[in-house]
């Protein structure tokens, strides 16, 4: 387990752009993060778009392959959740393709595809409607990823101050650590999340 400080980045830098660039460069840690955090989201979306649980597992493999092929063409804009929406759109397309292939019998005949055509494409309104749940799962998975990769007091301090809204002096006293260690722990965790996510969890006013 390591808890080394990451390189400092401007807080105005696009967070998912940082992840995208690292994925493009083939960074192993970034791919590990991507698979851990976004695989459950892809499976969830695929089942939401009409796939069964077992089919969703196959679809997520196709989505990851598509991401590998499409990363170079991805253009990050300033809209929050742009990476999620891009990934969700790929998942939708791969799901529809998968279900259409499933609906064609081996003898070459045709099958009614009304159910498939009723699958809601994640356009702007759908993406907005689903964004809260998607963001919640994304953040929860990111927190779980980092929890096992930092020192226990680092994650506990971050969770209690940033997520739970407790006062840093109280947290420092309870954990038996210096208050500067609390601030440093929160700063490091926020830096990690800002590096890899479109959005950051929880209020940060207590850190100012």
Describe the 3D structure.
With 208 residues, this protein is mainly α. The protein has one domain. Helices cover 65% and strands 0% of the residues. It is built from 9 helices and no strands. The two termini are 29 Å apart.
Topology:
Layout: H1 15-24, H2 28-48, H3 53-70, H4 82-102, H5 114-117, H6 124-147, H7 152-163, H8 168-175, H9 179-196
Order of helices and strands: HHHHHHHHH
The stretches of 5 or more residues where confidence is low (pLDDT under 50) are 1-15, 104-113, 200-208
Q: From the alpha-carbon coordinates, what is the Rg to the nearest angstrom? A: 20 Å
Largest sheet entry: none
How many helical stretches? 9
- Give the tally of β-strands: 0
Gap from first CA to last CA:
29 Å
As for the number of domains, it is 1
Helical content class = 55-70%
> How much strand content do the residues show?
under 5%
Shape: elongated
* Mean of residue pLDDT values: 77
What structural category arises from helix and sheet content? Answer: mainly alpha
């Amino acid at each position: 387990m390591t808890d080394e400080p990451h390189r400092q980045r401007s807080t105005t830098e696009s967070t998912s752009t940082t992840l995208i660039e690292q994925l493009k460069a083939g960074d192993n840690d970034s791919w590990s993060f991507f698979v851990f955090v976004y695989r459950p989201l892809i499976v969830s979306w695929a089942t939401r778009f009409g796939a069964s649980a077992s089919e969703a597992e196959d679809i997520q493999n196709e989505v990851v392959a598509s991401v590998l092929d499409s990363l170079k063409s991805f253009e990050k804009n300033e809209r929050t959740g742009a990476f999620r929406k891009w990934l969700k759109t790929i998942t939708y397309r791969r799901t529809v393709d998968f279900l259409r292939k499933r609906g064609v019998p081996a003898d070459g005949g045709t099958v009614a595809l009304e159910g498939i055509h009723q699958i809601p494409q994640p356009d702007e309104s759908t993406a907005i409607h689903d964004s809260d749940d998607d963001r919640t799962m994304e953040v929860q998975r990111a927190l779980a990823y980092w929890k096992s990769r930092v020192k226990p007091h680092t994650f506990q301090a971050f969770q209690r101050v940033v997520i739970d809204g407790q006062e840093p002096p109280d947290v420092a006293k309870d954990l038996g650590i210096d208050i500067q260690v609390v601030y440093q722990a929160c700063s490091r965790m926020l830096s990690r999340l800002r590096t890899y996510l479109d959005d950051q969890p929880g209020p940060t006013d207590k850190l100012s």
